[in-house]
Design brief:
Blueprint lengths: L1 E5 L5 H10 L3 E5 L3 H11 L2 E2 L3 H5 L4 E4 L4 H9 L13 E4 L5 H13 L3 E4 L2 E2 L1 H7 L2 E6 L2 H11 L3 E8 L3 H29 L4 H8 L7 H11 L9 H18 L4 H15 L11 H5 L3
Parallel strand pairs: 1-2, 1-4, 2-3, 4-5, 5-6, 8-9
Antiparallel strand pairs: 7-8
Helix pairs in contact: 1-6, 8-10, 8-11, 8-12, 11-12
């Protein structure tokens, strides 16, 4: 298929690469042109200077950018994607953003005869590089059916969650759960250390029981080793949790634990750890008097 991919960050770069390797004709756009040039050297295809130019002639355009404002700019801004897409095409947004902006972009796309799916992902950089992301999608079933095989190129699971915005709402649940898990894991590892236990041995044992989680198996060892210069940054998690907390204020859901963990992350940022992995929460406990 003729595809476009907009945004070549730590997630978009490998995701677009999987599409090219699968045999699709991929045109890319990135605000930093050098990154786009590097991508074409690695994967072929071509790079262009604007979102509109990238999506022109594409059957499906996909994107992964930073936040709500970036989504609006790339889709509806000057030389944005909607000025280049033809009626009947599909625009898929993999950005973790608000449900509100997803619904806005769905309406803006529909006004031009373009279908829109909000499709945030989970699995981090490793999941993107290995083609093992989990994708949660909001939109119409018929549109999802047309795009599903393309999304599966870099995913282990692609699921339609409901109408426009449902993908973003599901991603909020994902981030709420991760925040609580990482805080609990931090407390558990710190407790084990202060109790005189071998934390690595403790995790090896309890990961075979009911406490097992991806965070425990993937981040537990690096937390014990006090290594955080990789992974999903604290700055990004705070952006995501702000979206969760704003949505909760609107729908009446109580998120006391999430709000508390968000403030813990603010303390990590204050220590200069904004680019550390989210598992760096343990630093607050480990360094406590």
């Amino acid at each position: 298929m003729k595809l476009a991919f907009l945004g070549l960050g730590v997630m978009g770069y490998p995701m677009a690469g999987h599409l090219s390797r699968a045999g699709h004709d991929v045109t890319v756009f990135n605000r930093t042109a050098a990154k786009a040039a590097k991508w074409t050297e690695a994967f072929g295809g071509k790079s262009v200077a604007t979102p509109a130019a990238a999506v022109r002639g594409a059957e499906i355009a996909l994107m992964c950018v930073g936040n709500d404002d970036d989504v609006r700019a790339v889709i509806t801004g000057a030389d944005g994607a909607l000025s280049g897409l033809s009626a009947g095409t599909i625009l898929v947004d993999h950005t973790t953003a608000s449900a509100q902006v997803a619904r806005e972009m769905h309406a803006a796309a529909a006004a031009k005869g373009v279908a829109f799916l909000d499709a945030p992902v989970s699995g981090g950089q490793a999941g993107a590089e290995n083609g093992k992301l989990t994708i949660m999608v909001g939109g119409e079933p018929a549109v999802f059916a047309r795009a599903e095989a393309v999304l599966a190129t870099y995913a282990r699971a692609v699921t339609l969650m409901g109408a426009s915005g449902s993908g973003q709402l599901t991603k909020m649940v994902n981030q709420i759960c991760i925040a609580g898990l990482v805080q609990a894991l931090s407390e558990g590892i710190n407790f084990a250390s202060r109790a005189g236990l071998d934390p690595a041995r403790v995790l090896d044992v309890i990961s075979k029981g009911a406490a097992q989680s991806w965070q425990m198996e993937s981040r537990g060892p690096t937390m014990i080793a006090d290594k955080f210069d990789f992974g999903f940054a604290v700055d990004w998690m705070r952006k995501d949790l702000a979206i969760c907390l704003a949505e909760a204020r609107a729908n009446g859901a109580a998120l006391p634990g999430t709000a508390l963990v968000d403030q813990f992350y603010a303390r990590v940022q204050a220590r200069g750890g904004g680019r550390w992995d989210t598992s760096s929460l343990i630093r607050l406990l480990r360094d406590a008097e």
